[in-house]
Amino acid sequence: MILVTGGAGFIGSNFVHDWLAQSDEGVVNLDALTYAGNLANLVSLKGDARHVFVQGDIADSALVEGLMSTYRPRAVIHFAAESHVDRSIHGPAAFIRTNIEGTFCLLQAARAHWSGLGEAERKAFRFHHVSTDEVYGSLGPGDAPFAEDHPYAPNSPYSASKAASDHLVRAWHHTYGLPVVTTNCSNNYGPWHFPEKLIPLLIVNALAGKPLPIYGDGLNVRDWLYVRDHCSAIRTVLARGRVGEVYNVGGWNEKTNLDIVHEVCDLLDDLRPDPAGPRRRLIHFVKDRPGHDRRYAIDARKIERELGWRPAETFTSGLRKTVEWFLEHGEWVVDVQSGAYRDWITAQYGGPGGGE
Ligand code: NAD
Ligand code: TYD
Questions:
Q1: N- to C-terminal Cα distance for the chain?
Q2: Nearest by Cα to 37 from 259, 243, 251, 194
Q3: Which residues pair with 31 in a beta bridge?
Q4: SS3 for 223?
Q5: Looking at the predicted structure, is the pLDDT value of residue 356 above 70?
Q6: Average pLDDT estimate for 126-147
Q7: Are strands 221-226 and 254-256 parallel, antiparallel or unpaired?
Q8: Would you say the CB of residue 213 lies under 6 angstroms from ligand 2?
Q9: Quick one: DSSP state of residue 84?
Q10: How confident is the prediction for the chain on average, in pLDDT?
Q11: How many angstroms separate the alpha carbon of residue 349 from the centre of ligand 2?
């Protein structure tokens, strides 16, 4: 089996579906079900004996050690994290606890489990750490994209906590020999994306005729990758990546936030016209995020050169799939927009609709 952490969140749940669609190897899915974890993402796996869901905290050593000895995973794929930059600005403590202490606890349990395996199993074991391009900090307009040797310069509590976790993973390999691989990926989008993040927030607000909040001047740049492409990159690195190595993963899709909001509006106008007029009318510039990184860009040549991975989707094809998924899953959207979600929207944007 493999042990997946955070498999009820956005990328983790996509990964679990993707994995079980390609393999009969079972998944133990450990997730604390924070506000971002949602069993509705996994509902189609109900009754599938290959998927074992365990609600629990990665920082609970006894629980994690128990799972290692019961299921004896041949790999750990570590997604669980607090993942939203804006939340990290309002409340960094949870980020320190889960992203740093939680990763530490998981590494210790993985190391104890791995140490007790036979020689062949020890060699084959992998701890795959799922990380972000945000650890590298912010680029200027003419700077080269982030390669794997780019210096770390995290700027937000979120990225600093992820950077710390990357360093722990690296150290557990160098000091104890734990066979680790790390992937640092750019911004994902796709099905089951929690609508506090830019693309799903724009889709759900636009469909509801609510304001589309754009921070600052809207010219911050991100690289965007369709989530299923991230899943295929992780499968590739897990299978063939060199132990102890880092692979940067990206979509070769640098876009400003204004590009994104325009594309989302135009696509929705095409797929579901609004009698009140074009959705671009809903764009609303709001106060900038403190310390907002200007530009991220990924140099994904290493994973292509060494492992032959490239994204399958363009931004146009991936965004269309994503918007169609949201149009078909209105019930899921209503379900995630719980009381806790509404409290966040009010705290962050000053009003229940996402406007000011
Ligand atoms: P998410 O917030 O949607 O999901 C995180 C999941 O982790 C949730 O299901 C949550 O319940 C679970 N979790 C949180 N704290 C936990 C704890 N203490 N114990 C167990 N489970 C816990 O996040 P995501 O967007 O799916 O990101 C997954 C991983 O990928 C993260 O490590 C993130 O840093 C990384 N990443 C995300 C992106 C992106 O664009 N979303 C890009 C690059 C890397
Ligand atoms: P986000 O989805 O939060 O990802 P990250 O900050 O981790 O890259 O934000 C993507 C970009 O969109 C980022 O530049 C911030 C911006 N943004 C807005 O302009 N408005 C919003 O309401 C949100 C959530 C993000």
A1: 48
A2: 194
A3: 55
A4: strand
A5: no
A6: 98
A7: antiparallel
A8: yes
A9: -
A10: 96
A11: 13
The pLDDT assigned to 82 comes to 98
Tokens 């976790």: give the residue: 165
pLDDT, greater one: 159 or 340: 159
Q: 15 with 249: CB under 8 angstroms?
A: no
Ligand number nearest to the C-alpha of 193: 1
220, two tokens: 């911050």
Torsion of CA 40, 44, 45, 46, to 10 degrees: 80
Question: Ligand 2 centroid vs 84 CA: distance in angstroms?
Answer: 9
H-assigned helices in the chain: 10-22, 61-71, 85-90, 93-95, 103-115, 119-124, 157-176, 198-207, 227-240, 257-271, 301-307, 315-328, 330-336, 339-349
Q: What does the chain come to in residues? A: 356
Which domains, from first to last, does the chain contain? 2-195+226-255+293-313 (3.40.50.720)
Q: Are 201 and 336 in contact (CB under 8 A)?
A: no
For residues 97-126, average pLDDT: 98
Residue with tokens 């040797």: 149
Nearest CA to ligand 1 atom 44: 132
What is this structure's pTM? 0.97
Enter the tokens of residue 346. 């009010």
| Mean local confidence (pLDDT), 244-251 | 98
Residue for token digits 């907002």? 292
